[in-house]
C-alpha cells in the first residue's frame, strides 16, 4: 500500500511541477523576449513620462501595447501584477519530488557503491548541502566586486559549475548526480526571485508609496539575476528529464556528458536571447552560439554511441584486453534477468518501493524479456541498471547478458 501511495504522490507531484514550471519558464521567457524587443517610444509625451521602451504585439485576435519605464512611473498604479508564485511553486513541487523519490529511497536513486560507499543519511545530507552551498557561493560571488563585471562573473560561475558537476558524479550515482546538479541550479534560480528580485521590487514600490524616487540599483541587480536565470533554464530542463535516458548518466565519464549538454543548452539559449535583439543589428544574428551548442550535442552523441556487437567485450575489465565472453544459453541469460532485474520489472514487483514496473517494462517471462532486448542491453551496458545495483549484478553477469544479446539472443 505504501508503494502505491507514493506512486500517486509522485504522479501528482510531477503534474504540479510540470504545470508550475511551464508557468514560470513561460513568463520568464516572455519577459526576456519583451525586454529585448522594446523600441524607443514613438510619442514624445511617453518619453517625457519616463517610458524607456514600448512594443506593439498581436495575439489571440487582440492588439497589445506594452510599455516599460526606465525606472518607474511618476505615480503608483492602482493595480500592480507581480510574478513570483510561479517560481516558488515550481521549486516547492520540485523539492517535494526530491523528498518523495530521492530522499525517501537514497539507496535506490542516489547511491552507487561502485562510486562511493555512502549511508543513506550521508547521501541526503550531501544532497541538501549541495542546494544550500550552491546558492551561498553563487550569491556571494554576485554581491562581491566580481559581480560588477558580468563577463568575469560568468566565467567564474561556469568553472564552478563544471567543478560541481564533476564532484557530484564522484559521490552519487549518475542519476542522483545529474538530478542534484539541476536541483542546485533550480534552487539558485528560485532564490534569485525570492531573495533578490522580489525584495528589490518591493523596496522600490515602498519608496514610491512614500513619495521617494526608486533606487535604480535594485533594478540592476534584479536584471542581472534574471539574465542568469534565463541561461540556467535549458540546462536545468535537461537534468530534469535526463533520468529517463541512462545513456547520458550511466557511463564512467558522465560528468563530461553533464557539462557538455548543459553547455549546449546555455549556448542555444544565448543564441535565442541574441536573436531577440536582431532589430538592433539590421535583422542579423550571429549563428555561432547555436552552432557551438549543436556541435557540443553532436560530440556527446558520437562519444556515447553504443559499442558494435561484433566488438563487445567484458565491460568490467576492457582495459586488460579480456577475451571475448562465452555466449551463455537462454536459460542462463534468463536466470540472470530473473535474479537481478525482475524484482522491479515484473507485473507485481517484489522490490520494496515499487508498485509497478518502471516504464511499464516487464522482464519476468521469456516473452517479455525477448520483447525488450535493446533497452535491456543499453541499461546493463551503461551500468544504469539494476538501479543502484540493488540486486548486486556482477561484472561477469553483465558481460554474459550483453554477449547473449549481441549473439542474437539464441533460444532453445
Automatic annotation (TrEMBL):
Q: Which SUPFAM superfamilies match?
A: Cytochrome c (SSF46626)
Cite the Cytochrome c domain residue spans from the record.
316-409
Membrane-spanning segments = 12-33, 82-103, 115-141, 153-173, 179-198, 255-274, 286-304
Protein name (record):
Urate hydroxylase PuuD
> InterPro entries from the entry?
Cyt_c-like_dom, Cyt_c-like_dom_sf, Urate_ox_N
Query: Which residues belong to the signal peptide in this entry?
Result: none
- List UniProt keywords, sorted A-Z: Heme, Iron, Membrane, Metal-binding, Transmembrane, Transmembrane helix
Amino acid at each position: 500500500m505504501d508503494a502505491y501511495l507514493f506512486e500517486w504522490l509522485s504522479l501528482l507531484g510531477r503534474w504540479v511541477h510540470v504545470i508550475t514550471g511551464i508557468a514560470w519558464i513561460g513568463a520568464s521567457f516572455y519577459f526576456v523576449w519583451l525586454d529585448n524587443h522594446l523600441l524607443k517610444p514613438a510619442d514624445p509625451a511617453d518619453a517625457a513620462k519616463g517610458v524607456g521602451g514600448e512594443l506593439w504585439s498581436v495575439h489571440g485576435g487582440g492588439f497589445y501595447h506594452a510599455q516599460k519605464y526606465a525606472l518607474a512611473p511618476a505615480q503608483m498604479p492602482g493595480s500592480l501584477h507581480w510574478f513570483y508564485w510561479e517560481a516558488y511553486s515550481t521549486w516547492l513541487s520540485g523539492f517535494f519530488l526530491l523528498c518523495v523519490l530521492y530522499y525517501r529511497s537514497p539507496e535506490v536513486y542516489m547511491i552507487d557503491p561502485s562510486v562511493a560507499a555512502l549511508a543513506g543519511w550521508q547521501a541526503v545530507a550531501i544532497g541538501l548541502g549541495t542546494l544550500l552551498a550552491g546558492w551561498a557561493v553563487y550569491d556571494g560571488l554576485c554581491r562581491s566586486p566580481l559581480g560588477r563585471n558580468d563577463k568575469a562573473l560568468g566565467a567564474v560561475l561556469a568553472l564552478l559549475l563544471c567543478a560541481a558537476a564533476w564532484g557530484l558524479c564522484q559521490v552519487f550515482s549518475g542519476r542522483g548526480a545529474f538530478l542534484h546538479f539541476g536541483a542546485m541550479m533550480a534552487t539558485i534560480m528560485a532564490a534569485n526571485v525570492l531573495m533578490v528580485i522580489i525584495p528589490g521590487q518591493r523596496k522600490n514600490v515602498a519608496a514610491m508609496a512614500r513619495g521617494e524616487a526608486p533606487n535604480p540599483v535594485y533594478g540592476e541587480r534584479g536584471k542581472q539575476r534574471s539574465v542568469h536565470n534565463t541561461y540556467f533554464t535549458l540546462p536545468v530542463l535537461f537534468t530534469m528529464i535526463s533520468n529517463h535516458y541512462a545513456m547520458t548518466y550511466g557511463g564512467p565519464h558522465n560528468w563530461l556528458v553533464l557539462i557538455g549538454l548543459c553547455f549546449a543548452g546555455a549556448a542555444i539559449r544565448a543564441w535565442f536571447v541574441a536573436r531577440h535583439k536582431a532589430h538592433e543589428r539590421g535583422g542579423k544574428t550571429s549563428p555561432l552560439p547555436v552552432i557551438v551548442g549543436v556541435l557540443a550535442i553532436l560530440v556527446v552523441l558520437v562519444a556515447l554511441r553504443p559499442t558494435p556487437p561484433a566488438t563487445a567485450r567484458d565491460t568490467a575489465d576492457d582495459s586488460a584486453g579480456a577475451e571475448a565472453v562465452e555466449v551463455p544459453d537462454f536459460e542462463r541469460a534468463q536466470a540472470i534477468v530473473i535474479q537481478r532485474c525482475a524484482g522491479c520489472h515484473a507485473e507485481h514487483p517484489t522490490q520494496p518501493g515499487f508498485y509497478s514496473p518502471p516504464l511499464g517494462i516487464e522482464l519476468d517471462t521469456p516473452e517479455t524479456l525477448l520483447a525488450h532486448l535493446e533497452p535491456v542491453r543499453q541499461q546493463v551496458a551503461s551500468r544504469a541498471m539494476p538501479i543502484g545495483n540493488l540486486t548486486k549484478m556482477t561484472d561477469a553477469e553483465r558481460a554474459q547478458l550483453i554477449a547473449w544479446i549481441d549473439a542474437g539472443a539464441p533460444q532453445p
